[in-house]
Request: fold
Amino acid sequence: MLKKTTLGLLILMMLALSAVPVLGQDQPLRIAFSVPGLNFPFFVHMVKQAQDEAAKIGGIELIVLDGQDKTEKQIADLEQMIAEQVDGVIISPRTSDGLAPAVQEVIDAGIPVVTIDRQVAGDTSNNILAHVGADNVKGGEAQGELIKALFPDGARIFNLQGTPGASPAIDRNAGMHNVIDPVAAAYQIIFEQTANFNRNDGLTVTENGLSAQDTPPDVINAANDDMALGAVEALKARDLVGQVAVIGFDALPEALLSIQNGELTATVEQFPGGQARTALQITVDFLRNGTEPAEKLNFLTPITITLDNLNEAERIGEISS
Reply:
């Protein structure tokens, strides 16, 4: 008869082994891919890239979950995935705090989770298998540095922030402030407001900001391209295109075309396709081989895209020359 201590050790060993779901190379996999909303072109592209990678790897059913830009919808989707006992979950949480409890429930159910683009908050961020994303702080800093390069003698700035509580919104805003705040005497943020990563909001918020100022700003900095393109529409209505620099973030094909046409000044490339493919590879390697990722946090370094280096954008092939 085994002693209690020996039996306890055996149980712990069995639990540890069961935590590594090695399913083998030929084992079909069901992996959920949850995004904040397919109303955002950025996430549509990311999903397409993940689907393409899944087809290349083979034997993967990729379950695409549209959060519809609602935290409660993403939570309900995750609960459904737990009920269906999927093999893995890749998620870009709409908000860091709002999705953390639901993501932890997925982990507690024995389903490995990889976050992509956006992170979850608190202890849950330590319990995921991995995170894959752009270094959004560096991306925001790149926006700030570009503002300084474009306006070496100083500038008046509108700053359009993303969805409150979303990690990219927080980090991109922090990065831009890291660069601009130490030189605030010359680079003044005269209007700063969230436009929720939304084009219509970007248009409306920019219109409100322009109406509140006697003279237009030198530059409008936006935490994504949708808001930046909305700002361009507001400038068009006042015949200010070309007089106000507009900087976006995401390098969407429409934004690249806008740069090519001389409307948008710049955007930030964060390689969403590379993020999606890497996240799927990490998930599959763990499920089929038990391979832990070499790094828990996997960050791609964003770069600014202007007319001078348009060909470096990940999606340049999607626009006509």
Q: What stands out?
A: Confidence is low (pLDDT under 50) at residues 1-20. Residues 272-289 form the longest helix (18 residues).
